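User: Just a sanity check before I run the rest of the batch. Below are the structure tokens for the first item. I only need the designed sequence back.
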């Protein structure tokens, strides 16, 4: 008889990835074995969990209900194993998804201390700015910036990230340095995300007084490294995080615009596709990131 926990593990990966072959590869099984295990699970339960076609795999209503409980059961089993070993014996893989620049300049530099304390843990990192399907990608925890969209996921804020306006010295020589927010309407704004309209509002605060201005942009970029490159190239004024632009501000390739004004900080969240109660190893990683990045 097939091990019931193996059935659960295989079903979770097939359902999340939408592919028997991908799940088989990740679990080190053959595709026929993976299909046979899920078929055996469906036969034992007496319900259809997955709908198979030649192109993809879709989850049924019964499958979705089972997946929710199966994820929690798998997390509880992992917690039980970790409790038996002790908190200093966390092991396994954490699949972490991060934005490119924040991941490069903040999250990854925060990892050495965590991995040193937990030598049996491995971290697999996916880096991209677009919001991927975390369930299909098999991500344990993702770091996301700004407003959250999927209310079915669990989430915890890890940091509040300061934002600044920056531009290149060359751009400011050509167009002039703004001395007050109202002058931003005379400049080219660099828009991060192609979905933004050609004009949008900025809120700037000085001494408790808020000023709202509408800025326009000719250049839109959907990834943070691109918006930074556009600013350095002199294409306009960018609204970026202080972490993102710190090196360029230090070396002089970018200049802080309206430094006496503050922009609303950007919140960074840890998002858990498995729900509000992630595994002990994920909770430990997130707590570490809060300790390091939260300040």
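Assistant: Here's the designed sequence for the first item:
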């Amino acid at each position: 008889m097939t091990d019931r926990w193996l059935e659960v593990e295989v079903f979770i990966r097939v359902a999340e990835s939408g592919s028997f072959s991908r799940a088989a590869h990740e679990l080190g099984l053959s595709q026929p074995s993976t299909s046979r295990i899920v078929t055996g699970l469906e036969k034992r339960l007496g319900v259809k969990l997955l709908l198979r076609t030649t192109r993809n795999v879709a989850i049924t209503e019964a499958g979705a209900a089972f997946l929710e409980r199966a994820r929690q059961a798998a997390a509880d089993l992992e917690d039980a194993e970790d409790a038996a070993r002790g908190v200093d014996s966390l092991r396994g893989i954490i699949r972490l998804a991060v934005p490119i620049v924040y991941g490069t300049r903040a999250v990854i530099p925060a990892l050495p201390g965590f991995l040193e304390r937990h030598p049996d843990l491995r971290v697999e990192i996916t880096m991209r700015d677009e919001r991927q399907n975390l369930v299909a990608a098999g991500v344990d925890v993702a770091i996301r910036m700004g407003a959250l969209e999927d209310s079915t996921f669990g989430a915890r804020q890890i940091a509040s990230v300061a934002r600044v306006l920056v531009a290149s010295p060359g751009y400011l020589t050509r167009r002039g340095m703004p001395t007050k927010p109202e002058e931003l309407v005379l400049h080219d704004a660099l828009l991060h995300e192609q979905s933004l309209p050609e004009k949008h509002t900025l809120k700037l605060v000085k001494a408790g007084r808020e000023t709202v201005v509408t800025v326009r942009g000719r250049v839109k970029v959907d990834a943070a490294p691109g918006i930074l490159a556009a600013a350095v190239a002199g294409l306009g004024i960018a609204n970026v995080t202080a972490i993102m632009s710190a090196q360029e501000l230090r070396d002089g390739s970018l200049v802080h615009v309206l430094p006496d004004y503050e922009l609303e900080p950007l919140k960074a969240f840890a998002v858990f596709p498995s729900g509000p109660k992630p595994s002990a190893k994920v909770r430990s990683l997130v707590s570490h990131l809060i300790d390091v990045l939260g300040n």
